[in-house]
Design a protein that fits this description.
The protein contains eleven helices and eight strands. It is an alpha/beta fold.
Length: 331
């Protein structure tokens, strides 16, 4: 399949929540996709995640059974970075860790053979120009920030660095909009871009409110869903994003802007260090099948609230009528 974007062969580095979603939407758009993971277990897990997502889309009527099969057949999940050598566009979607991303871009630079291949990052907060500097072709590096869940949410933030070439910008935008059918907003290469620059300070304010004991996590979320018609409360949303990711974005924004409100609250850091990362670990500010809220009604550890603690059926995170969860947002 050929179009003006010149991006027929797609690569994705990382097959976690974001990488698998990016691979899926590319395959559903008729592209042949190679996804690279660090090990066989991670690759197998990523493949299962894609298969489950395609099955859910077919069951919900958003995709035919044949379409799901065809999309799955277009995706190869491997541990061999050399399989990306012939790619027209590669999207890096590894953890929000600068050293890991720099390593990926250095390896892509050495591996991808097409001299004008687009090397994109799905970073939600790191400077694109810093990642571009790890390559010998910074004009081909750009930010393509997708949102979770990628097959459902229509937004992509397009983030050129000071060194990104206009042809790279054009091809990346054509790919996101014309090929994937996403809505594109352009953002400057600054920590947080558009969405997280507005969203993360709000999430951090909610964490500070819970930390101070001003209200319980459940009441903070109920207040914002019922009083402001937000589809999801801020602490449930932080749990969905992943508290480690929220902290990484906050740290990046604080490092760039020096704004005290961007600094991760102590409670957030303690929860990350304790492995309470939200939905992906089963417990964060709310419980998803385990113990109750981390923060109780009195600002304590939540022991007094466990009888009434929210679970995965908490009103703030009920599935919407179309089968997705309300307010699912970035990572």
């Amino acid at each position: 399949m050929t179009d003006g974007s010149g991006t027929d062969r797609i690569g994705v580095v990382g097959c976690g929540l974001m990488g698998s979603g990016i691979a899926e939407v590319c395959a559903r758009a008729g592209r042949e996709v190679v996804v690279v993971e660090t090990g066989r277990a991670a690759a197998d897990s990523g493949r299962r995640r894609i298969t489950r997502s395609l099955a859910r889309a077919a069951a919900a009527g958003r995709l035919t059974a044949a379409g799901a099969e065809d999309a799955a057949a277009r995706i190869t999940v491997t541990t061999d970075m050399e399989r990306l050598a012939d790619r027209d566009l590669v999207v890096e979607a590894v953890a929000e860790d600068e050293r890991a991303k720099l390593d990926v871009f250095a390896r892509l630079d050495a591996t991808v053979q097409r001299p004008d291949a687009v090397l994109a990052t799905n970073t939600s907060s790191l400077p694109v120009v810093r990642l571009a500097a790890a390559t010998s072709r910074p004009a081909q590096v750009i930010g393509l920030h997708f949102f979770n869940p990628v097959p459902v949410l229509p937004l992509v933030e397009l983030v050129p660095s000071l060194l990104t070439g206009e042809e790279t910008v054009r091809r990346a935008e054509d790919f996101a909009s014309a090929v994937l059918g996403k809505q594109v907003v352009r953002a400057r290469d600054r920590a947080g871009f558009v969405v997280n620059a507005l969203l993360v300070p709000y999430l951090l304010a909610a964490v500070r409110m819970a930390e101070s004991g001003a209200a319980s996590a459940e009441d903070i979320d109920r207040a914002m869903t019922l009083g402001c018609a937000h589809p999801m409360g801020p602490l449930a949303l932080a749990d969905l994003i992943g508290l480690d990711t929220v902290r990484s974005i906050a740290r990046s924004m604080y490092a760039e802007h020096g704004e005290p409100l961007h600094a991760p609250p102590p409670l957030l850091s303690r929860m990350v260090e304790a492995g309470l990362l939200g939905r992906k670990t089963g417990r964060g500010f709310h419980s998803y099948g385990g113990a109750g809220d981390v923060m109780g009604k009195d600002g304590g550890t939540g022991a007094a609230d466990r009888a009434t603690a929210p679970s995965s059926t908490h009103p703030a995170i009920q599935p919407a009528a179309d089968g997705r969860r309300h307010g699912e947002q970035p990572t």
